[in-house]
Amino acid sequence: MLGSAPAGGDPEGIRGYNVIVVDTNVVCYRWLASPNSDVAEAALAKDPDWIAPVLWRSEFRNVLALAIRQNALTIGAAQQIASKAEASFEHREFAVSSDAVLQLIATSNCTAYDCEFVALAREQGVRLVTVDRQILREFPQIAVSLDRFVRD
C-alpha cells in the first residue's frame, strides 16, 4: 500500500531518528546474510520505522535474481525472503514525485533510482540511511551512513 505523511517540523527540516528512509542496500543487509547484516539489525533495533519508495521492491528483486542465478538462493527461499521483506514495509512504501526526483537529478550526479530515496527523505523530513558513497557525498544534509546512524 502506498502512503503519505506530513514532513517534519523541526527547524532544519529533518526529524530525529523516529522514522528513517532506508535504501535498498540496507534492506538487503537486513534480509540477506552479509558482513553488514549485524549493522542493519542494529539500525532496525535503533529505529524500526523504516520507509522507502516503492522502487525498493524492484531493486530488491534484482538482488534476489542475482542470488538465484548464482545458486546462492533457491527460488523458494527467495520467494520467502521477498514475502517477509515486503510485509515489513506494509504501509511504509511511498510514491515519489517525479518533479522532486528530476530536480535532484539536475543538481547532482546521482541516478534517478538513488534520487527517489533522497526525494522521499526530503518530502518526509527524515534522514536517509545508506551505504552509497555518492549519495552521502552529494546529499550530506539528508543522508547518513549506516555505520554512523548505528553509532550516533
What do you see in this structure?
The protein is of the alpha/beta class. The chain has one domain: 5'-nuclease (Rossmann fold, 3-Layer(aba) Sandwich). It is built from 8 helices and 5 strands; from the N terminus they run E-H-H-E-H-H-E-H-H-E-H-E-H. It has helices at 24-31, 37-46, 56-69, 75-88, 98-106, 112-124, 133-138, 146-151, and strands at residues 20-22, 50-53, 93-94, 127-130, 143-145. The protein has a 5-stranded parallel sheet. Helix 7 links the parallel strand 4 (127-130) and strand 5. Helix 1 crosses helix 3 (56-69) and helix 5 packs across helix 6 (112-124). The protein starts with 19 loop residues before the first strand and ends with a helix. The model is unreliable at 1-15 (pLDDT under 50).
Low-confidence runs? 1-15
Fourth CATH level, the homologous superfamily: 5'-nuclease
Biggest sheet, spatial arrangement of strands: 3-2-1-4-5
What is the rounded distance between the termini? Answer: 31 Å
Order of helices and strands: EHHEHHEHHEHEH
Q: Pairing-aware structural class of the strands and helices?
A: alpha/beta
Radius of gyration using CA atoms only: 15 Å
What CATH architecture label applies?
3-Layer(aba) Sandwich
| Main sheet attributes: strand count, strand direction, barrel closure | 5 strands, parallel
Helix content: 40-55%
Mean pLDDT equals 90
| Share of β-strand residues | 5-15%
